[in-house]
Design goal:
The chain is of the alpha/beta class. It starts with 10 loop residues before the first helix and ends with a helix. The structure holds pyridoxal-5'-phosphate. Pyridoxal-5'-phosphate binds at residues 135-136, 139, 511, 579-581, 584, 606-609, 611.
Length: 713
């Protein structure tokens, strides 16, 4: 009934956890316990609504974690659910659907299940209830894993179980960002410790910075794909070793490097301990690069170069970083300190390892770079959009001095988004009616999306309005408590709840608040605030976290809050604290226009705009990342994408272009209505955008590209 993986790989442990949870519930709810232990429910039509109907208030309090919901819901709620025949029928239908989904035969032409592609990543954005992600890299990894499951590929995912996850964001009344961390209790996650037959946890050991670090393994099922997470919270480990899996991306270089060693080397050891022998090892970003060291360890007899050539045959690497400074480097001393024990164990020469991580191996002053190491250790590499491919080839050409730029072995696979995870229910129902009930399974095929041309205006507009209204409800609910929590006055706190309008043009800007993403262009000229308050009002929702050490980005956020005294700002602009997968989903479903303002060429791809597109949002972006290959003038809008050394001049130009497009094109087009009050010109663009971009920027297309161009399947 489920795809076969090795018997010791933890499936029985997850089944056991589901049975234990079921024991706490009225017997008719046992199916819910089984559903709760596989994230397939989260992209099953009706899946989230099923758990919500057990106890809507508790569902919200539990952060949409179904295991916690069933553990914590009061007895009355559970008993009421157990007597609700409709709910039980929905649960049975959901379970049947999951069973047949899991039981599909494996994709033809792929290796057997014990020889899967093993995907390594430092973060996974599978769902808001599993807080082991920070942003775009994690969201992409989550989407990719779900698509591999939908495609029935032999695939396993490797990561770390962070006990405190990524930082949470809270702002004060001045707009200054404060960070805090909340502990995650793994016993309340849809996860199970992988155990050996006598019941003890299966562990692996990796020598890191002078300590034999022991790690146990949690398994989380994401459809057909098992996600294995290493966890150093073991009694054998001293506190500093346990800290390795405490938080994402710890700044201290020694601990950060220790995280990478545990992920890469520990990940390969873990897969072998679980009974997998991966046919492809996919390093997603340089964090996992040291997996290559462990893979070559078995071959070192012939020297490091020969061993590397052997390990390289099954290693592939995806780079996500188009700025040299964004690629992690470490001092040679730190590398030797953290990896010293491993050199001895694997019988490899530390100097040779360091040389592989340098752009210029003989430059003894050059630090060790994980990207250089990963590029040299893999048979093929890829960037994440066409433009990023060009940037990456010229950025790394010096590693292949004999090759011209265009022959550098870095290709591109443009990112895509997992449509079933991001599309809102009203739009999904609309598309089901017009594209056929199995449209999501055919998302990569342009023909699937063709019937969008024939969707009547009234239906498309009704679905768009419903999704916008859901977002406006959410803003009205959340913004008063966000504002009161910052210390704002009750009057200011209530302003957006009164001002937000389900029929007003709604603009979203949500992403990491790095200065190169230039939120500033949206907010800096006070005369542009006129747009907010004209007779065709516009409302703006902003969200995003600044890196804890990025004070420039924090000051930028504060400059947004300095506009608070302007009355239109209180009513029509909200900042949502603590951007995460949940708020991202609500924003991309409801916003009419999605804005992205990176300084070119610094956006490797960007994916949130793709999430907006599948919901009928229109994208307004600089021609960088994915938009440089997506924009054709028929859907969203573009700002020029050329590189300009004079950043201030470029910012001024882009700021002016942005506000001109908003004022002269976007606002009037949205306001132009036919006799039924429908903006027909607007909807024509929405249709073009969804039809043209939906298939090309789906995760289904992305995975097909990885299969054929990178894995060679
Ligand atoms: C999609 C997503 C991102 C990435 O968005 P970009 O467009 O690449 O900035 C970041 N964070 C969350 C929570 C997301 O869902």
């Amino acid at each position: 009934m489920t795809p076969t993986d090795p018997p010791g790989a933890g499936r029985a442990d997850l089944e056991h956890a589901a049975r234990e949870l079921a024991k706490l519930l009225p017997p008719p709810l046992a199916a819910l316990a089984r559903l709760a232990f596989n994230y397939r429910w989260s992209w099953l039509p009706g899946g989230p609504a099923l758990f919500e109907s057990v106890d809507p208030g508790r569902w919200a309090l539990c952060g949409h974690n179904p295991v916690r919901l069933l553990q914590e819901a009061p007895a009355e709620s559970l008993e009421r659910a157990a007597r609700d025949d409709t709910l039980l029928a929905r649960a049975a239908a959901a379970e049947n659907s999951v069973i047949s989904y899991l039981g599909r035969p494996a994709l033809a032409g792929t290796p057997p299940p014990e020889r899967p592609a093993a995907f390594f990543c430092a973060e996974y954005g599978v769902h808001e209830s599993l807080p082991i992600y920070s942003g775009g890299l994690g969201a992409l990894a989550g989407d990719l894993v779900k698509q591999a499951s939908d495609d029935a590929m032999p695939f396993v995912a490797v990561g770390l179980l962070y006990r405190q996850g990524y930082f949470r964001q809270r702002l004060d009344a001045s707009g200054w960002q404060h960070e805090y961390w909340t502990p995650t209790d793994p016993d309340r996650l849809p996860a199970a410790l992988v155990r050996v037959p006598d019941g003890r946890p299966l562990t692996i050991t990796v020598p890191i910075a002078g300590t034999d670090v022991v790690a146990q393994i949690w398994r989380v099922d994401v459809g057909r794909v098992p996600l294995f997470l290493l966890d150093a919270e073991r009694p054998e480990n001293p506190p500093a070793a346990r800290w390795i899996t405490s938080r994402l991306y710890i700044s201290d270089p020694e601990i950060r490097l220790a995280q990478y060693v545990l992920l890469g080397v520990g990940g390969v050891r873990m897969l072998h301990a679980l009974g997998f022998d991966p046919s492809v090892v996919h390093l997603n970003e340089g964090h996992a690069a040291f997996a290559a060291l462990e893979l070559i360890g078995a071959h070192v007899g012939g020297g490091l170069e020969g061993a590397l050539a052997a390990g390289r045959q099954r290693t592939v690497f995806t780079t996500h970083t188009p700025v040299p400074a964004g690629n992690d480097t470490y001092s040679v001393d730190t590398v030797h300190h953290v990896l010293g024990g491993l050199y001895a164990e694997l019988g490899i020469d530390g100097e040779a390892v360091v040389r592989l991580g340098r752009s210029h191996p003989d430059e003894s002053a050059e630090p060790f770079g994980v990207t250089q190491f990963a590029l040299r250790a893999s048979r093929i590499a890829n960037a994440v959009s066409r433009r990023h491919g060009e940037v990456a080839r010229s950025m790394w050409q010096h590693l292949w001095p004999e090759l011209p730029d265009e022959q550098v072995p870095i290709r591109h696979v443009t990112n895509g988004v997992h449509v079933p995870s991001w599309v809102g229910v009203p739009i999904a129902r609309l598309l089901e009616r017009h594209l056929g009930s199995d449209w999501m399974a055919r998302a990569a095929d342009p023909a699937t999306w063709e019937p969008i041309s024939a969707i009547p205006d009234a239906e498309l507009w009704a679905a768009r309005r419903e999704q916008r209204a859901e977002l406006v409800d959410y803003v009205r609910e959340r913004s008063p408590s966000d504002r009161l929590g910052r210390g704002d006055s009750p009057g200011f706190a209530a302003a957006a709840a009164r001002g937000f309008d389900p029929d007003a043009l709604t603009i979203g800007f949500a992403r990491r608040l790095a200065t190169y993403k230039r939120l500033r262009l949206l907010i800096e000229e006070p005369e542009n605030l006129r747009l907010l308050d004209g007779d065709r009002p516009v409302q703006v929702i902003i969200a995003g976290k600044a890196h804890p050490r990025d004070d420039d980005a924090k000051r930028l956020l504060q400059s947004l809050f300095a506009l608070k005294d302007h009355p239109a700002v209180g009513r029509r602009v909200v900042f949502l604290d603590d951007y995460d997968l949940e708020s991202a989903g609500r924003l991309v479903r409801g916003c009419d226009v999605w804005i992205n303002l990176p300084r070119p060429p610094l956006e490797a791809s960007g994916t949130s705009g793709m999430k907006s597109v599948v919901n009928g949002g229109l994208h307004l972006s600089v021609l960088d990342g994915w938009w440089a290959e997506a924009f054709d003038g028929s859907g969203g809008w573009a700002l020029s994408g050329d590189v300009d050394a004079d950043e201030r001049a470029q910012d001024a130009r882009h700021g002016a272009e942005l506000h001109r497009v908003l004022a002269d094109e976007i606002v009037p087009l949205f306001a132009e209505r036919d006799e039924h009050g429908i903006p027909t010109g607007w909807l024509a663009r929405v249709r073009n955008s969804m039809r043209g971009l939906g298939p090309a920027f789906s995760a289904a297309r992305m995975l097909a590209d990885y299969r054929s161009d990178i894995y060679g399947w």
